[in-house]
Write a structure and sequence with these properties.
Layout lengths: L2 H28 L19 H26 L3 H18 L22 H27 L3 H27 L4 H24 L1
Helix pairs in contact: 1-2, 1-6, 2-3, 3-4, 4-5, 5-6
Keywords: Membrane, Transmembrane, Transmembrane helix
Protein name: DUF998 domain-containing protein
InterPro entries: DUF998
Amino acid sequence: MDGFWATALLWAGALGSWLFVGTFLVDGLLRPGYRPVRHAVSALALGPRGPIQTANFLVCGAAVTAGAFVLPAALGSVLPALAVGVFGVALIASGVFPMDPMRGYPPGAPDDTPATTSRRHDLHDQDGMVVFLALPVAAVIAAVVLPATGWRWYSGITAAVLFAGFSAFGSAWERDDPRTGLIQRAVIGVGWLWLGLLFASAAG
C-alpha cells in the first residue's frame, strides 16, 4: 500500500481509539439519568441519545480494523495486528448488538438485572468478551515481538493491567457493584491509550 495511505490508516486507528474514550466520557457526564460511576459504557447506546454511542462503537471499530491491515508492515509482525483486528471487529459487533435496558438506565428501566435477557444482549456480552480478551492478548504479543525495549515493557505492563482490570470489571458487573462503571472506564482508558499510542508509533 502507498505510504501515504498506510500512514493515514494508522493515524485513523490512533485517533479512533482516543476519540472513543473522549466521546463516552463527555457523553456520560452530560447524559440525563446516566451515572458514569455505576453504569457501563455500553449502556450509553440506549435511550434517545443512544445512537451517539452506537456510532462511537462503529467508528472506533472500523478505524481500528482498517489500521490493523497496515500494522504488520509497520511493526514487522502479523501477530499483534491479527489480535488488534479481532478487537476492532468485535467492537463493531458490540455496536450492532446493544445491551438490554437494566440497572436504572435508561430512566424507567428496572433497577436490577433481568432474570432473562434478549438474544442481542447475549451477543453483546459475547462480543464484549472478545473485545476485553483480544486487547490484552495484543499487548502480550507486542511485549514479545516489538524490538524496542521501552515498548516491550509498556506493552507487558499494559497487558497485566488489562487482564487484572477486566477481571475486576467482570466481577463488579456480576455483583452490580456501585463502582462498576468507574472500574470499566479506568481499564478502557489504559487499554485504548496503549492502542492509540501503538498506532501513532507505527505511523512514525
